[in-house]
Amino acid sequence: MTAKKEPWQDWKHITKLDPDKPITESALETIIESGTDAIMISGTQNITGKNVSHLISLLKDYEIPKIIEPATPDAVIYDAVDYLFVPLVLNTGDLKWIVGKHVDWIMTHEIQWHEVVPEAYIVLNPDSAVGKLTRSNTALNTEEVIAHAQYAEKYLRIPIVYIEYSGTYGDPRLLKRLSGILDEASLFYGGGIDTKEKATEMKRYADVIVVGNVVYTDIDSFLETV
User: Fold this and answer.
1) In angstroms, rounded to a whole number, what is the distance separating the alpha carbons of residues 74 and 214?
2) Considering the domain boundaries, does residue 1 fall inside one?
3) Is the pTM of this model over 0.70?
4) Cβ 98 vs Cβ 128: under 8 Å
5) Over its length of 226 residues, how does the chain's per-residue pLDDT go in tens digits?
6) DSSP string for residues in 99-140
7) Cα-Cα-Cα-Cα dihedral of 87, 92, 98, 99, to 10°?
8) HSE-up of 39 (CA within 13 Å, CB side)?
9) Domain membership flag for residue 15
């Protein structure tokens, strides 16, 4: 029997918005009308239920898929979102980012499991906030990254492998290798996409590109990434 295909598996471009960063309503309207496939509410620093709720309230009237990618159980809010993309940081040096926070969430909250989509994160920028927070081993070589990705897909059956460079532009040769190896998991890429050329290059290999920082620095350049 063929597994049911989820709507997110047809996406190509996700816009990541940080609850800790202010954004105008006019900028939001521009983003929604750009052609991006979904909005991901995600961040690493100062992520609270309050600022996540505020961002959701700004988005509630827009007919576009909305995702929360929670950094902590307290930032999980079900109202007016379609998915919870929950990261497991495979190359972390701290077990809580693979199982600890997730178990705490299960034990202390009532979970709407139909919204949950697990992501296997591989963090590769040592200077990023997420890399520092999760104490990730970012010095992985290509073969080690591939092994992590195959572990996620073949052992854990996680549907998304997310290559996260967070704030810097990554190596398209790595994405090319991964795209030829992953059979079932969707390959997501995020980090440093701020031009049409970079978006085109990474989308050549990734199933989905995730664009975030440029939204806050140059909205016209963001539009070129779509």
Assistant:
1) 27
2) no
3) yes
4) no
5) 456 788 999 999 999 999 888 899 999 999 999 999 999 998 776 666 778 888 888 998 899 999 999 877 777 776 778 999 999 999 999 999 999 999 998 998 888 899 999 999 999 999 999 999 999 999 999 999 999 999 999 999 999 999 999 889 999 999 999 999 999 999 999 999 999 999 999 999 999 999 999 999 999 999 999 9
6) THHHHHHHHHS---GGGEEEEEEEE--TTSHHHHHTTB----
7) -140
8) 26
9) yes
The whole-angstrom separation of Cα 74 and Cα 136 is: 22
As given in the structure block, the two tokens for residue 62 are 């827009």
State the pLDDT at residue 181: 96
Question: DSSP code of 113?
Answer: G
For residues 123-156, one letter each, b for 16 or more C-beta atoms within 10 angstroms of the residue's C-beta and e for the rest, the string is: bbbeebebbebbebbbebeeeebbebbbebbeee
Q: How many domains does the chain have?
A: 1
Q: How many residues make up the chain in this entry?
A: 226
> What are the C-alpha distances in Å from 175 to residues 83, 146, 190, 219?
25, 10, 11, 26
With H, G, I as helix, E, B as strand and everything else as coil, classify residue 92.
strand
Residue 5: inside a domain: no
The pLDDT of residue 2? 53
- Residue span of the structural domain in which 191 resides: 10-225
The owner of tokens 């988005």 is: 59
Number of Cβ atoms within 10 Å of the Cβ of 181? 14
Asked whether residue 4 is domain-assigned, the answer is: no
CATH number of domain containing 88? 3.20.20.390
